[in-house]
Every structure is written in structure tokens, then in C-alpha cells.
């Protein structure tokens, strides 16, 4: 279970009354796993909405259970997963079991409530991974289903659903996106030589995985130092996934970013430049190049994340250098770490992955749990959660 999942597992319903009303069936877990896999397709594309998956199954006259509709939250958050699945199922949704990774919405937004669509379609049963903590929903969707006489099984796959939507949950709870710190370093924790050379510390497989991570986040964030020194594009360059490039965010308190920076030339939307209010006047030239200037009274990590959360972002990948990494760690704002580590050693004169934290005692060091270790060619990816 990843960061956020344990805390939010308390939102998953599963009382004795629920179990009497609707019992699990042998096939339920397999179909819920399918719905969870569909939900992941929305990561990085649906903010500020959650990424949801829905599978509709129907038992035929011969007793064979068949999938009649699949759906997942579409780009921009609309249409919702249930709407997509119902459209694909058509009349075959009547009498079906619906597997949904998050409680169906029960409020009017740009479209009608999904729970009303499920009831109107005539589903006979629902299996839902977790309750939606959004105050506009928060149990109302489940109540509507039960009021319509539809049995509901709650909680199956709840921890996985909470993990998928950890960004959505973090924004609801803390008003900021989930933060994943991505580091690519040598075995001894160096991200560049003393001269600044860093291409390539890790190999091709690790770099491909890092690009996939970009595709699954709403934004990738760096500091002005990295933007000037490396002139990165910060796009997803996996074949066929180029259009899933995230928003590029540069924290540039003094607006030092050159107008010729590659980050401003991307065809995948405007770059966001976060700066101080007293420096915003310098941003006209960057704005003329298409940049979105976000001026804040202070441009510290907490203020930056709040501003991104206010703009609907739920998942941010921090890829900056050691100074930026240290500032987010120092303020306790890193939820996950994806640490790609090569087998080479650069030495003490290399540039560290994390700059000074100013720690006097070990007990004050930021602590994380290692939840996964994966080999990627000659490199290793360690995933850690707070």
C-alpha cells in the first residue's frame, strides 16, 4: 500500500449490514482488478477529477459471465468512467453488475450524477472499491443505489483505489498535490560530476520508466538552476505517448529563465513559471513566449504547491536538482520518492542528489518506507513513501 492509502483506507465502507445486503462473489475480485487497471489510464490526464475505472458484466443464459461495458475517466475529467461504460454497454447494462473503483458521483456538475445514470440503466448490483471523500458525494452515491434497491458491496480493492487516487485525496485533505521526488543518481547519491556532466548517469530502461512517470503526473517541476544549466524539455518522449506530456513548472523567483529555453518551445501546452510578486514585471517577455506567470507573495515550496493545488493539479513530479529536493524534504512536502540508482560511483566532488538539510540529529532526518525495489537493466529503482 502506497502513501496516502493507509490513511484513506478508513474511508472504505464495509459494515456487517453491508455484507448481509450484498455478499462477495468468486468473480468479483478479478473484475475489480480490471476496473482498477482501467482507472490507471487516467493518471496525469484527469485533474482535478479522480481517475476512475468501471466494468459492467452480465451473466448470459448459458451461465457465462461476460464484460458488456468498460470505461475510465477521460481526459480533462469528463466523461466519467460510469458514463463511458454505460454507453458501450447500451441495453446490456440492464441486470448487470457494475464494478467501480470510486463511489459514483451524486451531484450535478457539467454532467448529471453517475449514480442516477447507473440506476436508470437498470444495473442489478454494484461493487465499489471506496467511498468518495468529496463532500459533494461522501456516501450519497451508495445511499442512492441502496435506495433504488441495488445491493452494494463496498471496500473490495479499496487500498489499490486509494493509492491510484492519492493525488486527488491529498488535494482534498491538504489543498496541495501529491508530490513525488524523482532522483536519478550514481550509487553514491551523486546526480552530476563536479563539472556538471550528468548525461547519462542511468541507462535506457531507467530513462524510459522516468518518462512513463511524467505521463502519469499532471505536472513536472524544476527550479530555475536546473532549467538554466540543463535546458530540459520535460516532455514525455515515449513513442505514442508524446501527447501525455505533463505541464512544465519552473520555480524561478527572479525570472532568470532565458526566452530561448526549450521548456518554452514545447508544442504540448504552456509552461508555468512560478515567481515572486516583486519579480512579476520581468515576466512580460516570457509571457509573450506563451508562459503562464504565477506570481506569489512568497515562492517557497508550500506556497508553490498550494498555488498548483488551487489550479486543480493533483500529482506533481519534482525533478529539480539537489537544492530543490532539499527544500521540499526540509518542509516535509515529499510524499513519495522514486530513486533511480546506477551502479557507477562519482565520488565526493560530485553534485549531491540532496543538498544540505541542516540536520544536527539523526532523529530529525526525513524518514520513508521502502515499498518496492525493481531492477532496470544495470540500474535499480527504489520506491519509497512517507
Structure description:
- By secondary structure, the protein is α/β, with parallel strands linked by helices.
- It contains 13 helices and 16 strands.
- The chain has helices spanning 5-8, 16-21, 28-40, 81-89, 114-121, 140-147, 158-164, 166-174, 204-215, 224-230, 284-288, 301-310, 322-330, and strands spanning 53-59, 65-72, 97-100, 125-128, 152-154, 178-185, 190-192, 219-223, 247-251, 272-276, 292-296, 315-318, 336-341, 351-352, 369-376, 379-385.
- Strands 11-10-9-8-12-6-13-16-15 form a 9-stranded mixed β-sheet, with helices on both faces. The chain has a 5-stranded mixed β-sheet with strand order 2-1-3-4-5, sandwiched between helices.
- The longest helix has 13 residues, at 28-40.
- The model is unreliable at 1-20 (pLDDT under 50).
